[in-house]
Amino acid sequence: MATADEMAMLGVYQRLMVEAKERAMSINALTGDQRGIPSPLVHEYGILQIRMLCEIIRLSCLVAHGDLVAKAKPDLRKAFAPGQIFAELEKMHDDFYPVPMKPEKTEYGWHMAEYDGAAYMTKSEVAGVWGKCGDVLHRGHLKKLLKTNSPVQNHFLDLQQWGQKIMNLLSAHRIITQSRNLAFVCLLEDSNGEVNVALGEAGREPDPGLTGNAA
Asked: Domain limits of the chain?
């Protein structure tokens, strides 16, 4: 049974997933219709959103494992680099990271089957992409400025690839707690087109219909 703290974290997790969906959709909207905005600025906006999505993945891991964070070294609570945080969490729980699932609609609600889709953003990729986005967003020193001109982005291939991998991860996923008794289960788009998050008990089908969703 979920504790009061876990139920409180359910609401926080829901808000993070709503934000993730909004940021991902904003990338698609702006790259699909640039509204007269120069391509380099559109690309820069998209890179910022990808970096923020990496940070949402980082924060979602911390929220789902708040009990571990409370017992961890103070450095973990102050850290912001995904690679550092993931390394510390993995020492305490080897299954801390979101796992994508395949949602299947049934007459009783949703069944979350094993994922068999396209490649998704792994924890090592999150750390790498977060760093690459930072390199793009920070102008750096004069030598970097004078070295070469950045190519003009017209097709935004990096945004498409990274964004799709992130959505493949988050669209339907679960994060299991260290006790392995509970899991945060998320659908970014349920039957009503809404983000829905629930706590499911291990050994039982979670109900992302979802009766345990957080408002």
From this structure: 4-201
